[in-house]
């Protein structure tokens, strides 16, 4: 048993025991282990579980079951959306709009497309991390084929106004892709009401298993009907958009996780938000602390704080034995780099590196907040003393 | 980032952290907080020897651990060596990744600046 308090729910979540139980039923000979594409009873049984899961996911996010395309996770969904649209519409245009604060699963495909001759506009959000619809509108060009913006930022928890941005894109005729990996289960997500053409989902951020996700491909008929070029071939599964045997147990797990998210009591979000605010108040009392991202537009489970007078890597090392959190810096090599998300919000390099992201979740309790406050308070005080701050 | 047991021990205890005062105390510093690494040494020097040393550091665990080790082993007569142990040896002792070895040079610069203040090194 790891003695550290887990407060990194924005990175991943443990599989809910009810989800694990549902998955187990599709693994063994007694359950629906068949290939869902097989034309016999075993295949039919597995296929029924797959379609039930598809309906669960769709219902959770206000989509139609036929809009759900299974993938291996949000990264694959992002890649399929970006490369799929770029390739399909390459004769119409080669311009894409995204933001500097997007996840690498969006930024890296965009950079790859730049290497292949596409043009990409990277929007800079305001100091709170918000990308305005007006800024999106101003970036659209005649040959813009895709706008890709995340619903909830993975580092700051800031929520974008997707409905307004979708309206801007629809008026222009550009397709909108949204990475919603961080929003499902935390805030209401309604694919039809929000209005994007494509929406990426992940299971493991919502107490489901790793290795499965989905891309929602709009069939609502809003604006131009979005089309995608497939990225992998070999069986024609998922309407030809994602070849490969559908992993029944994985999608059953995702379906169960999304069903639990859909039926979670409304008080749960309030409970998490109250714990998050107590954590922030305790950290703010240290002085020299900066909350990153617009607190009024943030999901309840994320808190990102920079600490003056401490070095980021040492801060993380100091808390690590007792607290599992993420640092704002990205360990791309032996040298830690300041968070590009926080840099885009205007934080200087030192504060961008000396940040911690606290991710609260379903199993976080009040005593975990007490423990986190104790650990971080001690670490910050000690490191400030060491540096003479 | 994983650290060696020795690095973690010196980082967590940070023995020798602080400042010294008095007429026999000389101070050297190098680096900057803005660049991510800053180190300061206070050396209490008498009769050509170091009686005590303390450090302050804003930096990564390797930086803090190495500075702590240096002041722990600082006392004794000066043989005009910049450090009791070379940057290369310190790097090996604390398993410092190649990309971070520049931070040990900052430590060396701070130490050398202190010795220079004390007139122990040109």
Compact overview of the structure:
Chain A is α/β, with parallel strands linked by helices and 389 residues long.
Description:
The complex is a heterodimer of chains A (389) and B (122). By secondary structure, chain A is an alpha/beta fold. Chain A folds into 2 domains: 17-262, 3-Layer(aba) Sandwich (Aspartate Aminotransferase, domain 2), CATH 3.40.640.10; 266-386, Aspartate Aminotransferase, domain 1 (Alpha-Beta Complex), CATH 3.90.1150.10. Helix content of chain A is 38%, strand content 15%. Chain A is built from 13 helices and 15 strands. Chain A has helices spanning 17-24, 41-60, 74-88, 104-115, 133-139, 162-172, 191-194, 248-262, 267-284, 312-319, 340-344, 349-353, 366-386; strands at residues 5-6, 68-71, 95-99, 119-123, 144-150, 175-179, 198-202, 213-217, 289-291, 302-307, 323-324, 326-327, 330-331, 336-337, 355-359. In chain A, the strands form 4 sheets. A 7-stranded mixed sheet of chain A has the order 2-8-7-6-5-3-4, with helices on both faces. In chain A, strands 9-10-15-12 form a 4-stranded antiparallel sheet. Chain A has a two-stranded parallel ribbon with strand order 1-11. In chain A, helix 1 runs antiparallel to helix 8 and helix 5 (133-139) runs parallel beside helix 6. The model of chain A has no long low-confidence stretch (mean pLDDT 94). Chain B has helices spanning 5-13, 61-72, 87-93, 101-117; strands at 25-32, 37-46, 49-58, 76-77. Chain B starts with a helix and ends in a 5-residue tail after the last helix. Chain B is of the alpha+beta class. In chain B, 37% of the residues lie in helices and 25% in strands. Chain B has a single domain, classed as Sufe protein. Chain: A, CATH 3.90.1010. In chain B, strand 2 (37-46) and strand 3 (49-58) form a beta hairpin. Chain B has a 4-stranded antiparallel sheet. Chain A binds chain B through residues 309-311, 313-314, 317-318, 331, 333-336, 348-350, 353, 382, 385-389, and chain B through 1, 3, 8, 11-12, 14, 17, 19, 33-34, 36-38, 40, 56-61, 64, 97-100.
């Amino acid at each position: 048993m790891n003695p550290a308090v887990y407060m990194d729910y924005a990175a991943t979540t443990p599989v809910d025991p009810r989800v694990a139980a549902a998955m187990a039923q599709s693994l063994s000979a007694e359950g629906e282990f068949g290939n869902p594409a097989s034309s016999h009873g075993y295949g039919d049984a597995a296929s029924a579980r797959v379609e039930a899961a598809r309906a669960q996911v769709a219902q959770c996010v206000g989509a139609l079951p036929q809009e759900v395309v299974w993938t291996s996770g949000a990264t694959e969904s992002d890649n399929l959306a970006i490369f799929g649209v770029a390739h399909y519409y390459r004769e119409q245009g080669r311009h894409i709009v995204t933001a500097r604060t997007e996840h690498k699963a969006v930024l890296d495909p965009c950079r790859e497309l730049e290497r292949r001759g596409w043009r990409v506009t990277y929007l800079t959000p305001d100091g709170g991390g918000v990308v305005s619809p007006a800024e999106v509108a101003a970036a659209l060009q005649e040959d813009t084929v895709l706008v890709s913006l995340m619903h909830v930022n993975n580092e700051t928890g800031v929520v974008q106004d997707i409905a307004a941005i979708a309206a801007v894109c629809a008026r222009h005729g550009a397709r909108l892709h949204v990475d919603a990996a961080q929003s499902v289960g935390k805030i209401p997500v309604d694919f039809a009401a929000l209005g994007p053409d494509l929406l990426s989902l992940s299971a493991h951020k919502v107490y489901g298993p790793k290795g499965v996700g989905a891309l929602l491909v709009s069939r609502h008929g809003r604006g131009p009907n979005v089309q995608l070029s497939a990225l992998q071939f070999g069986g024609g599964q998922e309407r030809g958009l994602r070849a490969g045997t559908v992993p029944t147990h994985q999608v059953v797990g995702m379906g169960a996780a999304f069903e639990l998210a859909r039926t979670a009591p409304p008080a749960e979000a309030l409970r998490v938000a109250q714990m998050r605010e107590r954590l922030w108040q305790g950290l703010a009392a240290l002085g020299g602390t900066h909350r990153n991202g617009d607190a009024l537009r943030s999901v309840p489970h994320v808190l990102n704080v920079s600490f003056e007078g401490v070095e980021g890597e040492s801060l993380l090392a100091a808390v690590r034995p007792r607290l599992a959190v993420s640092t704002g810096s990205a360990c791309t090599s032996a040298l830690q780099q300041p968070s590009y998300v926080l840099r885009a919000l205007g934080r200087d390099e030192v504060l961008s590196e000396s940040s911690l992201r606290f991710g609260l979740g379903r199993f976080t309790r009040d005593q975990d907040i007490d423990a986190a406050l104790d650990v971080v308070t001690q670490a910050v005080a000690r490191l400030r003393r060491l540096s003479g701050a | 980032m994983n650290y060696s047991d020795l690095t973690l021990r010196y980082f967590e205890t940070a023995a020798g952290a602080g400042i010294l005062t008095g007429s026999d105390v000389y101070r050297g510093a190098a680096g900057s907080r803005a660049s991510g690494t800053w180190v300061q040494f206070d050396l209490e020097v008498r009769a050509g020897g170091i009686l005590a040393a303390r450090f302050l550091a804003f930096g990564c665990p390797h930086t803090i651990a190495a500075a702590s080790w240096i002041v722990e082993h600082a006392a004794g007569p000066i043989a005009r060596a910049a450090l009791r142990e070379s940057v290369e040896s310190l790097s090996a002792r604390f398993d410092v990744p190649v990309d971070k070895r520049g931070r040990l040079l900052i430590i060396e610069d701070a130490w050398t600046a202190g010795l220079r203040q004390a007139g122990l090194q040109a």
